[in-house]
Amino acid sequence: MAGENKARSNREIERKFLVKWLPDDLKRRRHWIIEQGYLATESAGRQVRLRKTGKATSLTFKVGRGSHREEREVTLSPKQFAALWPGTAGRRLRKVRYEIPCEGLLIEVDIYGGRHKGLVVAEVEFPNNASCGRFEPPSWFGREVTGEKRYSNVRLALN
Amino acid sequence: MAGENKARSNREIERKFLVKWLPDDLKRRRHWIIEQGYLATESAGRQVRLRKTGKATSLTFKVGRGSHREEREVTLSPKQFAALWPGTAGRRLRKVRYEIPCEGLLIEVDIYGGRHKGLVVAEVEFPNNASCGRFEPPSWFGREVTGEKRYSNVRLALN
Asked: What pLDDT sits at residue A126?
């Protein structure tokens, strides 16, 4: 799999919410431990992120803020990842991500660990603007925090 | 070569100079066209750079300023490079690099193209601090510009 390329170069449309309570069946959902760290970040949401999801390792470039972002991601070989990961020291976070299918969409619930223990955030990605606009949050969603810097992963990793 | 890792994770010791005149035999030296662009840059010299040297493609993470920098570099497959390169739009530069061996050291002469046409810079990398301190610049070297932001590749690419 070394150097295999994940062809994903697109604009993301997503919304982010705090979570009032966790769904009862959460533990039965597919979930992974995610570790991620940032090599470099700029204003305007420009960032280069390394991520390890289970054994899968990747590098992601993002630019833009809020519900619309440009994102470019490539799979890294374990050696590539190991060579770059030390550059993220002091800029990392760890979370468990649960996937919950919901009315044709996918809700990703992130339960943060370490110094952000207690923080739970739900993200939903949409195929287009119309779908994004008409989304009705389920009852267990709390306040919408789309685009709030305080809840961005970059900010959480740097703080 | 996909995903092959170039094991290079170290501290660089280097000095940079302007060039008063080009050595007569320059055209006979080994040289390459280098295209590079920056995915993200921060203060304190933190940056993620993509580079194409001939057909070789790489991603380099750097942090630190002046003559001492931490650098981590991995070779990218052509597909990985192609997926990430568009993220450097508007933050690129192009130069021809000549390699000139000199008293056990290697001088790299960069002749910039595009909007920086006319700029020529020489860089020397040293194996240790002692070698760095006792270096006597050849007569064709001009003013030393080590650590001057104005001549950093990041600044040149962004301006």
From this structure: 93
Percent of all residues in chain A with a pLDDT value above 70, rounded to a whole number:
91
The per-residue pLDDT of chain A, averaged, comes to 90
Query: Tokens 């993470």 correspond to what residue?
Result: B61
**Residue B31 pLDDT > 90:** yes
Predicted complex ipTM: 0.80
DSSP B24: T
> Could you give the percent of chain A with pLDDT greater than 90?
76
Identify the residue with better confidence: B7 or B16: B16
Interface-testing mutation among A41, A63, A77, with chain B (most B C-beta atoms within 10 A):
A77
DSSP for chain A reads -TT----EEEEEEEEEEEESS--TTGGGSEEEEEEEEEEEE-STT-EEEEEEETTEEEEEEEE--TTEEEEEEEE--HHHHHHHGGGGTTSEEEEEEEEEEETTEEEEEEEE-GGGTT-EEEEEE-SSHHHHHT----TTEEEE-TT-GGGSHHHHHH-
Determine the pLDDT at residue A67: 59
3-class secondary structure, B78: helix
- Residues of chain B found within 8 Å of residue A11, distances taken between Cβ atoms: none
- Assess contact for A125 and A23: CB atoms under 8 A: no
For residue B4, pLDDT over 70 is answered with no
B73 contact partners, CB below 8 Å, separation of at least 6: A83, B6, B8, B9, B58, B59, B60, B61
Among candidate residues A94, A103, A132, A113, the one with its CA nearest the CA of residue A16:
A132
Q: To the nearest whole angstrom, how far is the Cα of B41 from the nearest Cα of chain A?
A: 6
> Is pLDDT of A45 > 50?
yes
B42 and A46 within 8 Å at the Cβ level: the answer is no
Show residues of chain B in contact with A72, CB under 8 Å: 83-84, 86-87
Distance from the B143 Cα atom to the nearest Cα atom in chain A, whole angstroms = 31
- Rounded Cα–Cα distance for residues A82 and B143 (Å): 39
